[in-house]
Amino acid sequence: FSTVGSTPFAPGARHDQSLEQLNSIRNTFTHFTPKGWALELAGLPGICLDTIGLMRFLGITSTAILWHRPAHRTRAEKALRRLEKTLKGLAA
Asked: What is the full per-residue pLDDT of the chain (92 aa) written as tens digits?
């Protein structure tokens, strides 16, 4: 993990809460015990939108990831933009 030439990630006001909520959902799903369980759409797109900033920072802005092929980085950037557009549509 290299951060040479990169600044630290500057989280927004909601990043900590969103990542904690996402981790809680992941833990509930991963350590599944028989019970009734459902996710509602309200709130989830916002949580995921908050994490896109971190994904973009780690994968695109910082030097944390070494892309061996520029085309892979381009694909990742496009995928993040598409995901962000889709999530914004769901959040509206």
From this structure: 455 666 778 888 888 899 898 888 888 878 877 777 676 777 888 888 988 988 998 888 887 788 899 999 999 999 999 999 999 998 87
One-letter identity of residue 75 = R
Nearest one of 19, 86, 83 to 51, comparing CA atoms: 19
* C-beta pairs of 10-18 under 8 Å, 24+ apart in sequence: 11/53, 11/54, 12/50, 12/53, 14/46, 14/50, 15/50, 15/53, 15/54, 18/46, 18/47, 18/50, 18/51
Closest CA relative to residue 21, chosen from 43, 36, 37? 43
Whole-structure pTM value: 0.72
